[in-house]
Specification:
Elements lengths: L1 E11 L5 E6 L2 E5 L4 E6 L2 H4 L13 E11 L15 E8 L6 E6 L9
Antiparallel strand pairs: 1-2, 1-7, 2-3, 3-5, 4-5, 5-6, 6-7
Length: 114
């Protein structure tokens, strides 16, 4: 599992869940139902004080675990992608700005040989 922080572009569905993302010059479609939870961040090390009533975005990170597959052209959309094209990623959404970052990659990126 790799852990880092890199900006990604995310398209959300009507209920706010990720349905598509662009990362590394490729477009990925969310295949399975994404899972959301919150993680406590070390706000006391990053902020001088926490304003009363603030929590989401300051105290907690909104994390989404998504399983994605590389988007296909319409002609290839009916084909089942190979297993190594599926990735499980953790994304974090910044509450104030709405920006998304890739936080973790759970599947090893496999080098494809010719």
């Amino acid at each position: 599992m790799g852990m880092f922080s890199e900006s990604v572009d995310v398209v959300c569905g009507a209920e706010g869940q990720p349905v598509e993302l662009q990362w590394g010059g490729r477009t990925y479609t969310v295949g399975a139902e994404p899972v959301r939870w919150y993680e406590r961040r070390q706000w006391w090390a990053e902020e001088q004080r926490a304003p009363l009533g603030s929590g989401p975005g300051l105290v907690d990170h909104e994390i989404w675990r998504v399983q994605v597959v590389s988007a296909k052209t319409p002609a290839k959309a009916t084909q089942t992608p190979p297993a190594d094209e599926h990735l499980t990623l953790d994304l974090v959404r910044h509450t104030g700005s709405g920006r998304w970052r890739l936080l973790r990659i759970h599947d090893a990126l496999r080098h494809k040989t010719a």
